[in-house]
Amino acid sequence: MQYEITHLPKEKWEGFIVPIGYTTDKYYDVTVNKKDNGFTIDIEKKDFDVPFVFTPDIYDYPDKLYQKHWENACASGVLVNNELIAVIETDQELWSNRLRITELWVHEDYQKMGLGHALIEKAKQQARNEKRRAVILETQSCNVNAVDFYMHEGFTLIGFDSCCYSNDDLKKKEVRLEFGWFNN
Q: Which of 72, 87, 123, 134 has the fewest beta carbons under 10 Å from its own?
């Protein structure tokens, strides 16, 4: 089945809660070791002892469309029977000439059907059209499906933040990972 990606106007979709949730039995373990001459950083896929379940209510529903801090956000999505089943939101990072994917979500019933790929391709095309040097995004080290999907889509690890969500992100196995796709 072919799905149409359509613009989601701010006037209608501002504040829409993107219900990102997942369950995983794996994570990317991030370790930072201080040495006499610097640091070593290892990121290795490992198994959780018990599955990790992320639900949006854990962080008081942080994923919303057109949040105030994204000044130039633009959202597009796929609607089926007037219900949003997939969405991508981007914002220009003008100072570094990059395009940031701020939200990406596909309803679990519609995953593995090419919608995520189509939305990523839309962002890449936007970057080309705007002559942005890269598309960047963040995900969590415990969201293995997302990490693996982004790598499959041509993104590479460009950095991490070991205390983005709490002061215990490394222990909690929930480290912010930054990925980038370069517009060459």
A: 72
